[in-house]
Amino acid sequence: MRKVGLFVKKDKKAAKKADEFESWLKNKKIAVVRKVSLPPDLHSPANNKISAPRDLSCLFVLGGDGTFLSAVRWIGDLNIPVLGIKFGKIGFLAETAAKNLFTAAEKIINDDYTIKRRMRLKVDVVRQKKTIISELVLNDIVINRGALARLADVETHIDDHYLTTFRSDGLIVATPTGSTAYSLAAGGPVIHPDVPGIIITPICPFTLTNRPLIVPDSIRITLKLAKGASDIKLTFDGQEGLDIDDRDTIIVRKGSHALNMITLPGQHYFDVLKAKLRWSGGRG
């Protein structure tokens, strides 16, 4: 292991721990590339340019889920293994806590870990037959109406077959990894990351029979707003976004580049799930 990345939440505690960790790595003759996470930019078109060095052996993310999602966007479609270290309030994507950072790093240096591949979604926004945005997302895309906008009417096709027009406050299309994020808060199901599916979850639907739907990850989802739609925003993993209208067609499918997430010995998905959701038997 010659070079690793540190992607750090803009936070005093995280920065202090990153300083200690960077010195520790350099003492082991490991080069470090460090980047500070910036706040989400939801008011400009998304831009999926890769900026992470291609020769990183792995990436340590010090922060919460928002920092993790930002880090994933930074590496783009590069096959760099990623380990989340929890500093934020929400840590579904973090593999371990800050107090275990050095122990976890020793295991990774000694190749005592496994890789779990997490599906990502490829999202294209087509306007007047031209693709204006192409993104990879780990958690979800969200179509959301503004505070003063009417209900959003989202015409939905599955593999070019008309499904329905969701009339709601918005619509979420999520991966299994994203099933424990916004989709869960909107009433969607929890899906194990290894399940090959995509979740479509309406946000506060006008028609109560419009329920969350799980579709195979082999299909293509096409979304289009009704005529005259305004004050509607499309966001990617809650990190970047753009305003959309009835000129736009959103095409969602399984991406060809999965994320390589590092899993440490003794870590189990269901233990994390129970703890975060405070189910009986959770470890807090």
Q: Which CATH architecture of the largest domain?
A: 3-Layer(aba) Sandwich
Radius of gyration: 19 Å
Q: How many structural domains?
A: 2
Class from helix and strand fractions:
alpha+beta
Largest sheet: 6 strands, antiparallel
Number of strands: 19
CATH topology name of the largest domain: Rossmann fold
Please report which band the strand proportion falls in: under 5%, 5-15%, 15-25%, 25-35%, 35-45% or over 45%. Answer: 35-45%
How would you sum up the global shape?
Answer: elongated
Strands side by side in the biggest sheet: 8-7-18-15-10-11
Distance between the termini: 34 Å
How many helices in DSSP terms? 5
Instruction: Kindly report the name of the CATH homologous superfamily of the largest domain.
Output: Probable inorganic polyphosphate/atp-NAD kinase, domain 1
In the predicted model, the low-confidence regions spanning at least 5 consecutive residues are none
Can you give the mean pLDDT?
91
